[in-house]
Amino acid sequence: MDAGNPAQWTGDRYRLLLRGRLDRHGLAWLDALSVETGDDGVTVVEGAIRDQAELHGLLAALRDLGIPLLAVIPVEVGPDATHHTQNGD
């Protein structure tokens, strides 16, 4: 597997909840992630994250921008994603 080609890896998916609205202008590193802001002012950023280093880099970038982080939630994908279940079934 070529780690440099995102089409060939399926990193874990995460949902980040942020307080406030993100201006995507100038935030090219968010292009691979979906970004939606609700009426309540909470922005949801979701997508595949290659590994823990990439996740920590994303969190550090958000911190450096002063964006309040509300939650980091691993997201289950399909029926094979049993490693994220809470009850272990």
Give an overview of the whole structure:
With about 90 residues, the chain is α+β, with helices and mostly antiparallel strands. It has a single domain (about 10-75), classed as Alpha-Beta Plaits (2-Layer Sandwich), CATH 3.30.70. Helices cover about 15% and strands about 30% of the residues. It is built from one helix and four strands. The chain has one helix at about 50-65; strands spanning about 10-20, 35, 40-50, 70-75. A four-stranded antiparallel beta sheet has the order 2-3-1-4, with helices on one face. A hairpin with a 4-residue loop joins β2 (about 35) and β3 (about 40-50). It is globular. The model is unreliable at about 1-10 and about 80-89 (pLDDT under 50).
Arithmetic mean of pLDDT: 79
Strand content: 25-35%
| CATH topology call | Alpha-Beta Plaits
Number of strands: 4
Contiguous uncertain segments of 5+ residues: 1-9, 81-89
| Helix/strand order | EEEHE
Specify the helix fraction band. Answer: 10-25%
Through-space gap between termini: 30 Å
CATH class (first level) name = Alpha Beta
Number of helices: 1
The radius of gyration computed from the alpha-carbon positions, rounded to a whole number of angstroms, is: 14 Å
* Biggest sheet record: 4 strands, antiparallel
Helix-strand makeup class:
alpha+beta
* Total domain modules: 1
Quickly give the CATH architecture. Answer: 2-Layer Sandwich
In one word, what is the shape? Answer: globular
Strand order of the largest sheet: 2-3-1-4
